[in-house]
Amino acid sequence: MTFGNKPELLAPAGSMESLKAAVQNGCNAVYLGGKMFSARQYAGNFSLEELEEACDYCHLRGVKVYVTVNTVYKDKELPDFLTFIEKLYRMGVDALIMQDTGAAQLVREHFPDFSLHASTQMTANSLADVNYWQKQGFDKVVLSRELTLEEIRHIIEHTEAEVETFIHGALCVCYSGQCIMSSMLGGRSGNRGRCAQTCRLPYTLYRGTEEVAKGHLLSPKDVATISILPQLIDAGIASLKIEGRMKTPEYVAGVTRIYRKYIDMYIESPKNYAVDPQDIKELTQLFNRGGFTEGYYTSYGGTDMMSTERPKTWGLKVGIVDKYLPQHKKVVIRTREPLVPGDGIEVWTQKEPHVGCQVTKHSKAGEVITLTLEGDIAKNDVVYRTFGKALHDNLQKTWEKDTRKLPIYGILKAKEGEPLSLQIWDNLGSSMYVTGNVVEKAGSQPITEEKLRQQTTKLGTTPFVFADLDVQADEGIYVGIKDLNGLRRAATEALEQSILKKTKRKAEEKGEAPRKAAERKILRKKLTVLVNTREQMEAILRQKKIARVYLESNTFFAGHLESILEKCHEKEIECFMALPRIDREYQEDEKRLEIYKNSNLDGFLVRSAGQFGQVQDNEKKIAVDYNLNVMNRESVLFWKNQGADTVCLSVENNLQEIRGMADADCEMIGYGYLPLMTTQQCPVGNFAGEKHSGLYCKERFHEDLYFLRDRKGEKFPLMTDCERCVCSILNGKPLFTLKFYDEVLENAVGSVRLQFTKEGQGRTERILQAYIEMMQNPKWYSVETKQLLHQMSEKGSTKGHFFRGVE
Prior knowledge:
Mean pLDDT: 94
Shape: globular
Number of helices: 24
Helix content: 25-40%
Radius of gyration: 31 Å
C-alpha cells in the first residue's frame, strides 16, 4: 500500500439535495443507493433517472460515484438485480459497494471491468479477510468499525487492496453483517437494508434475578475523528467515509465541509494542524448522542463509548435553568451560547418527556433570558439547542449556488478575415474546438482584448471555470457579443458532452443467467451438532446417528483435542473445529490454528472469508457457516467453487427459498438459541465489569448467568467470549423445528445442524434424542419427544424465518 497520498473523502447522499451538499462542500466521492437493492431502504434514495443525473453532476465536477448494492439477495431478485447493474454500468457509475458473494460473482462474470468495493457488511476484521476479498476482485475493502488504529495500520502495510474506514457518524453496536436482531424480532433484516434499530431501545441487564443496569445499554455514541485525523491519514487509509445516508442535507454539508478543511490543513501544513473548538460545536449541533467518541480507533469498547441516557440527537448545550416560575409558566435560563430567532431548545427535565420551545429573540452568550415554557422544570436542568437556525441557513446556502467548478483552459482567436475560434480543454484529456463567423474590421467601436476575455469567461451556470484563457486578437476588429456568447455556449456544451461520453460504457453480453438448484428432496438428512462445552460433548458421545460435530474453538476443546478426536472417530463422527465468530488475529487463535491444521481434525467450520483463505490449502474439509449470509444459489456455488464441502444457509431464508437454492452439500440450522448480535460492547463487561475503554473487564471469565430484558419483558441471554472480549446476545427463544420437521425434509439440504450454546448435558441429550428419532421416522413420536414438544410449546420457541421469511 502506498503511504503519503491524500485520502479520498467519501460522503453520503440519501437524496439529490444531499448529493449536491456533499459535492459543493468538498467530497472526492459520494456513495448512494437506488430505490432497490440498497442497505438503507428508508433513505430517500435515487430512481434510475436520478442516478444518471447524479453521475453526470458528479463527473462534471471531478467527483466519483459509488452505488451501494450492499445487501443480500433472494434468487428471484437476481435477474432484476443484473438488469439494474447493467444500467449502472452504462451510465458510468465508478464502483459498486457489495455484500452478497453470489451477486458479486455475477457482476464479475457479466461486467468484468466494473470496480467492486467490499462493504463493511462483509465483516472484514483482519488482514486475511482483506487479502481474500482482494484476490476475489475487490479493489477496496471497507473495514469493520471495531478495528483499532494499530490493527488498521498493520493491514494497510501488508495488503495491495485499498482500505476504507468510517471517520464520522453512527456506530452499530453489532459487528456489521452479523446482526439478525431486527430480523428475528420483527422481520426487518439489516442484511436486507431494513434495520429497525432495535439496539437503540431501552434494556435492563440482570445477573440472575439481580438488576445490574438499565437504560439504552446497546446504543453507542457517534464517532468523530477530527482529533485523530492526522493519525488516520498517516496510517495510509485510502478512503475516509462519513456515515449518514439517512441524515439531512445540512448534516452532510456541515460534516463534509469540516472534514475537507482538516484533511487539507494536515496535508498542506502538518505542523500547524489544530482543531477549532467552533468546528466541534458545529459537529455537535448537527448530530450527537451525548458527545462523541473516537470510536474503536483508540478503544476496545466500554461505557465511554455508549449513550445510555438517550439514543437520539442531543443537540448543543447552550445553558442551564436558573429558576422556574410554574405559576407564570416562565423559565429563566443562563445561556452559554448565542441564540437567534428560530433556534429550537429543549430543557432536560429530571423525568421524560423533556420540554422545549422555539427562541423568538436574539441573545448573546452569558445573557439571562426568560422564555414561556410549561413542564416539570427545576433549577440546574441543562438546556440544549436541538435546532440551530443560523447554522442550518448557512449550510443550505453552500449548495444552493453551484460554486464547485471544473477548471478548464482555452485559446480564443479573433483574427481579421478568419473565423472566430475557441478551443477549450480540461486536465483529463477532453478538448473541444469550435468556430464562428469571420472576424471583420471594426467601424467606429472596435472590441478590446479585455472585453473579449471578460465575455468569454462568463461561464454562468456551466460546471466550468477558466483557470487560464489565452486571447489572441488583432486590433481594430469587430466581434458581435451575440456571436461570442454563442461560440462560448457551443464550446462548453460540446466539452460537457465530451467529458460525459468518456464516463459512459457499452455493455456486452457476458456470463450466464442466475442459476437455480434442481428441486429434489433428501428425506434422510444427516444430523450435525455444534457444541460449546464439555457437558454437551459428553452428551454427543452417548448418541448414535450423529454425522458430524463442530467444536467451538475455546480453551477446553483446544486443550483436549486429541482425546475428543479419538472418541469421535471411534464412533465414526466427523470432528470439525468451529473457528471464532469474530477473528481479529488474536495471537492465541493464530497458534491454535496451526495446531488444528496439523491435527487429525476432519475439517473446519469457517465464519469469515479470511479463515476460509487460511485453511483453503490444508486438504481438510471446509464448512461455511450461516453467518456468511448465504441467501441464494449463486452464493452457494461461489463457496463450493472456492472449495467448500458444506455450505450452511442463512437463517433468514424461508423453506421455499431453501428449496430453490439447496443441494446435498448444504446445511441448515434446525435448533438453537441463535446469536442475534455479536458485539464488542459486552453489556456484562460495560455495566457489571466496569469496563470504560480497555480490552478486558473485572468480570472476565465470570460464571454468572446474565441476560438483557427489553421493554416487553423478553429475555436475551448473554454468551460472553472472555478470551476475545466479545459477547453474543442470544435469542431468548430457541429455534425449534421438530414440530414441523416433515416440512424441513421437503428440500435438497443434506444435513440439519443442532446448535447448542447454554444448554446443560441433560437438556442436550433430550433434544438430541428427539431429533435422532425424527431423522429415522418423522411420523412417529416417543413419549419423551411428545413431552419435549409440549414443554417447548409452553416455554416458547420460534420457527425462525422458515415460514415468514424476511422483507
